[in-house]
Amino acid sequence: MLLGGSAGSASGGGYPNRMDEHDERGTTMTGVDPDRLDDQQLMRELETIHRTRHDTLLYGSNDALRAHNDRMARLEGEYLRRNPSRFVSPGRTREGARERTAGTDVRGPAGAPVGKWGPGTTAGSGGA
After folding, report:
1. How crowded is the C-beta side of 42, counted as CA atoms within 13 Å?
2. 83 to each of 17, 42, 79, 111, how far by Cα in Å?
3. Interior CA angle at 99 toward 98 and 104, to 5°?
4. HEC secondary structure over the chain
């Protein structure tokens, strides 16, 4: 049969419907498995996904947002698995947030400011 063909196996003209071979609806493109990334690659992936989060929320399709959510959860889960004893800033806890809203300054040990990488000093790397 030159025209038509059976449903699903050929498109008009008797040619195979190759468009179905690449139909990835219902699947999620997840990138490299987070447990296969080294620490530096994992941090780079986390930084990238957090940087693109807002635009994905505002402008991405539902499928894009769903894929973003899945990828972010997997990357963050791997980070937490590798760093179970990571530093938690006192200001990022419920108690610390309550103190912050009450006007109390939340600081680390010995009054050192708490930064992105944990308690630090206001001086250079040599200490206070």
Report:
1. 18
2. 48, 12, 6, 25
3. 155
4. CCCCCCCCCCCCCCCCCHHHHHCCCCCCCCCCCHHHCCHHHHHHHHHHHHHHHHHHHHHCCHHHHHHHHHHHHHHHHHHHHHCCCCCCCHHHCHHHHHHHHCCCCCCCHHHCCEECCEECCCCCCCCC
CA-wise closest residue to 92 among 110, 115, 70: 115
User: CB atoms < 10 A from the CB of 114, how many?
Assistant: 19
pLDDT tens readout for residues 53-83: 999 999 999 999 999 999 999 999 999 999 9
- Cα-Cα-Cα-Cα torsion 68, 73, 76, 78, nearest 10 degrees, comes to -120
- The pTM of this model reads 0.56
Place of tokens 């059976």: 6
